[in-house]
Structure formats: C-alpha cells, structure tokens
Amino acid sequence: MAPKKVRTASRNPCLIPGIGKFSRSKMYHKRGIWAIKAKHGGSFPKHDPKPAPAATAAVKPTKFYPADDVKMPIPNRRKPKPTKLRASITPGTVLILLAGRFMGKRVVFLKQLPSGLLLVTGPFKVNGVPLRRVNQAYVIATSTKVDISGVNTDKFDDKYFTKEKKKKTIKGEGEFFENEKEETKALPQDKKDDQKYVDTPLIKAIEAVQDLKAYLGARFSLRSGMKPHELVF
Amino acid sequence: MPFKRYVEIGRVALVNYGKEYGRLVVIVDVIDQNRALVDAPDMVRGQMNFKRLSLTDIKIDIPRVPKKKTLIDAMEAADVKNKWENSSWGRKLIVQKRRASLNDFDRFKVMLAKIKRGGAIRQELAKLKKQSA
After folding, report:
1. First to last CA, chain B
2. CA A143: distance to chain centroid?
3. Which parts of the sequence belong to the Large ribosomal subunit protein uL6 N-terminal domain (chain A) (predicted)?
4. Residue A17 vs residues A3, A7, A27, A206: alpha-carbon distances, Å
5. CA Rg value for chain B
C-alpha cells in the first residue's frame, strides 16, 4: 500500500475568515472523534497527568524592594550567522583583491570562515599572499576555478588568525626604546608549515593548467579603455 | 556619389537601436516614408523605423510580405547566414562579441599571445634588416 499522506488542510472549509462551513457537531463527526472513542472503549485516549513538582523550599521574602520599578531588558536571542556568500564564489575560485597590502593580486579562495570572512591563499610561492582572511566586499570573483580537492582546510578558523595578546609590562623611560625594537616577531614555524601544507597540492593543480601560474603571479589593473561595468570577469 | 544599397523588398538590414539591437532582419514591405515592415526567422514580423536599420549588401528574392516558411526558404537559398559571417562587417561584429565575452584569465592569455607575436615579428624584422645592411 502506498504510504498515507498526512492531511494538512482543515476539514472545515473557510467561508469567510472566522466562519467555517460546518457546525461543531458536524465537525465532531467529520474528525471521527466518535470512532476514536469507540476504539478506546468509550473515552478519548489521554496521557496520564504529570506528577506535581515537589514543593520547592519556601523562598524568604526579600527585605529590600527598589523604590521605582526597574525595566527588565528583553534578552537578546540573536545568533549571528556568516555573511551570505555570493553565488559566484565557490571553493577554488580565483579572486581579485581590491584593497589593502595585496590589492590587485589574484588569489585562490579556500573556504568561508564562521565569522563570514573568506579564507584565501596566494599560493605564497606564486604571488606572496599567505593564508589570509579577506572580506567578501573587497573582492571581485572571476569565473576561473582551480581544482581544490587535494587541499584540507578543516583546521583553519577565526581563532587561528587572532593576534596573540601581548603581556603588559610597566616600562621605564630608558627601556622605552628597547621595547620598540622587540615588536617585530618572526613567523612561528608551524604557521609556515601550515602554509606549505595548503599550498603544495594547490600548486600542483595550478601547474596543470597552461599559463595559470603566471596569471596568479600578475597583478590586475585597469588599462585605458577598460570599462569595469562592461568587463566580464 | 550614387547610393549603392537601396531599401527594397528583400534587403537584409542590421538593427542598430532598440530591443532587437544586433539582429539581422529582412525588409518585407514599406509602410510609409519612415517605416518598414521587417521580419526574421526567429522574430515576430513587425514595423521598424528606417532610422533603426543599417542596410547591408545582402538582398534576397522574396514576394511582398511572404509567409514565414517562404522567407526562411528564401534565406536558405540565398545563404544569408554564411554571406554575412564571411563579410568583413559580419566578421568584425563576431570579433567584437568574442572580445566582450573574454573573461579575466582569457584577457591575460591574449596579452601573453600579443607579446609573443610582437617578439616574433621584431626578430624577423631584425633578421631582414641585417640581411639588407
């Protein structure tokens, strides 16, 4: 027998909003309450009443009440979700960065992080862009795609990219200049390893396509006569 | 200078303004001083101002306001499509369309090809200069 479809519409057609076609007694008959009652020996089946909760310990009335009523703020139940990703941006798309240190660079898109930012890599050996977060608004998506199936990006999320907290030391005047020199830190080796881990399968996929490596190494710029609104990316 | 391309029944024209921009149509009738009845195999027959049409060299042999089937057969017989695509005007339009549809990677490859071609030409030129010197 074909599986029975669950009835979704009411059995009482609406004549005017608020007024149905059938009376209460007719509806009782239509819903088959009489048949359900007969099946269960004369009364409609119901759940056993829940046991009453154990009497809580008596709360002592407080001695202090505030003079005026204080308004309770409504609890915020919003859960932020990551920005909607443009349909043209899929893993492996070549993006053109429009702002910042790497403006004009063509870069490979890896995945969208939970904060909404895009995780992107040069690859580093090709154009000097490391694993980096980038905002979708500052990016043009081209229609060129790179095969990204060999790359595992599971371990990267927003926490990976946060700056490390600097320990605050109380500085004397003499030590002021010395501390300035310590500011530049070398990149930790595990970040360099992560870069290599992501880039090696990517570079293999890139070298498989003719001219793609040179393309990613070159910067994008507008020339005379190029109209961005007429260009197909 | 006498005119060479005339508005006549069977003249193939290119629409240069409006909704049908870029379409090749055939003039099937003249309505008045400014308008023509115009038809194409994949279009509903309709009127168009002459100012919206650019006449081409191609002319086909049709009676006044032919049935769609007659029009299509006449266009096949005169081989309008191939004549247009082989004419210099038609070829230019095809190239323009292709260039407009190039994507960013394609434009990069075109740039590399142009540089390579320029290099080859300059090498040959240098060789010829050396020979004649």
Report:
1. 48
2. 23
3. 4-57
4. 33, 21, 17, 64
5. 21
For Cα atoms B80, B86, B87, give the angle at the middle one, nearest 5 degrees.
85
How many Å apart are CA B66 and CA A176, to the nearest integer?
A: 93
- CB atoms B103 and A233 under 8 Å: yes
Question: Which candidate, B75, B88, B103, places its Cα nearest to that of B10?
Answer: B75
Closest Cβ–Cβ partner in A96, A142, A211 for B112: A211
The answer to whether the CB of A120 falls within 8 A of the CB of A133 is: yes
8 A C-beta contact, residue A133 and residue A119: yes
pLDDT tens per residue across all 133 residues of chain B: 899 999 999 999 999 999 999 999 999 999 999 999 999 999 999 999 999 999 999 999 999 999 999 999 999 999 999 999 999 999 999 999 999 999 999 999 999 999 999 999 999 999 999 999 8
A–B interface: beta-carbon pairs under 8 A: 34
